[in-house]
Amino acid sequence: MINELVKKIKEKDAPIVVGLDPMLSYIPEYILEVSFAAYGRNLEGAAEAIWQYNKGIIDCTYDLVPAVKPQIAMYEQFGVEGLRAFKRTCNYAKQKGLVIIGDVKRGDIGSTSEAYAIGHVGKVVLGKHAFSPFTEDFVTVNPYLGSDGVKPFIKVCKEEKKGMFILVKTSNPSSGEFQDQLVDGRPLYEIVADKVAQWGQDHMGDEYSYVGAVVGATYPKMGETLRKIMPNNYILVPGYGAQGGQGKDLGVFFNKDGLGAIVNSSRGIICAYKKAPYAERFGPEDYAEASRQAVLDMKEDLKQAYIKD
Q1: What's this model's pTM, rounded to 2 decimal places?
Q2: Alpha carbons 210 and 204: distance in angstroms, whole number
Q3: What domains sit in the chain, N to C, each tagged with a CATH number?
Q4: DSSP string covering the chain, please?
Q5: Hey, how many other C-beta atoms are within 10 angstroms of the C-beta on 151?
Q6: Which is catalytic among the residues 55, 105, 161, 299?
Q7: Strand 233-237 vs strand 209-215: parallel, antiparallel, or unpaired?
Q8: Which residues are CB-neighbours of 89 under 8 A, at least 6 positions away?
Q9: Which of 220, 291, 238, 245 is nearest to 56 (CA)?
Q10: Counting Cβ atoms within 10 Å, is residue 216 exposed (0-12), middle (13-18) or buried (19+)?
Q11: Fewer Cβ atoms within 10 A, N terminus or C terminus of the chain?
């Protein structure tokens, strides 16, 4: 699947993934009211509103971007109904030709880790039939438990020709409490990056590995070091926009071929209609069109990062 992701990034000239991380406070009132009127002011009604909101954004951006990244916690908070909205979102994005990065941040050991992998990027075999519980192409993985937690994901991804992004240096301010701690004189995130590069060599696509890394846009200096450690691993870069990352600072995440990274924006795109400068041009009824314009603006901004002179 990494080959397909790289292909789509090249075709659309957009190393962008739209983070579908909806909260009810993001959703225009008219969508909420229609959904509550149809299903009740309950979890089912809330999940329907989330699905309709996502659908509008996908419809207005699928021709511009290669991928979407639904964050499963935003759906799980609504229980089973929320997971149905997650599934519908993934299925619809797939129909639109988008690569799906399931932001699930799973990580356990042995059979538990493999069960997570099967649930999100694998198949459940029942007799002569196999079923895909969800339709993600990639998942995010927490490596804190070591190889015991990661290798079951690699196994399933190899079987299904799918991929993963392993948390290496995350964008949140407190990430350094653990990730920056020194181990034999090196920060822990560099040690994790060494393992990601090693795991990636055993699961290569045509140009890049199916095993990628998550490195926050908020730490470009660290990103420069990590890019050198992991030259063949795609980097998923969160933290653009709302968390402060800008295109001019992100060149270090890309290789000389202009590839090697895909940048996520969530609130900056899906909530664009609420923020300057889009709020002046787009009302709640045009929230999806505002998201489209935010993608177009992000695309231009990122050219500062990956277009080499």
Answers
A1: 0.95
A2: 6
A3: 2-301 (3.20.20.70)
A4: -HHHHHHHHHHHT--EEEEE---GGGS-HHHHHHHHHHH-SSHHHHHHHHHHHHHHHHHHHTTT-SEEEEBTHHHHTTHHHHHHHHHHHHHHHHHTT-EEEEEEEE---HHHHHHHHHHHHS-EEETTEEE-SS--SEEEE--TTTHHHHHHHHHHHHHHT-EEEEEEE-SSGGGHHHHT-EETTEEHHHHHHHHHHHHHHTSB-SSSEEEEEEE-TT-HHHHHHHHHH-TTEEEEE--BSTTSB-GGG-GGGS-TTS-SEEEEESHHHHTGGGSTTGGGT--GGGHHHHHHHHHHHHHHHHHHHH---
A5: 17
A6: 105
A7: parallel
A8: 20, 50, 51, 54, 55, 58, 68, 70, 75
A9: 291
A10: buried
A11: C
Contacts of 104 (CB under 8 A, 6+ apart): 72, 116, 120, 136, 139, 140
pLDDT at residue number 309: 58
Residue 245, pLDDT score: 67
Per-residue confidence (pLDDT) for residue 147, from 0 to 100: 95
- Tokens linked to 146: 């070591």
- Pick out the chain residues at pLDDT < 70: 242-245, 308-309
Q: Say whether 105 is catalytic.
A: yes
Count Cβ atoms below 10 Å from residue 308 Cβ, excluding itself.
Answer: 10
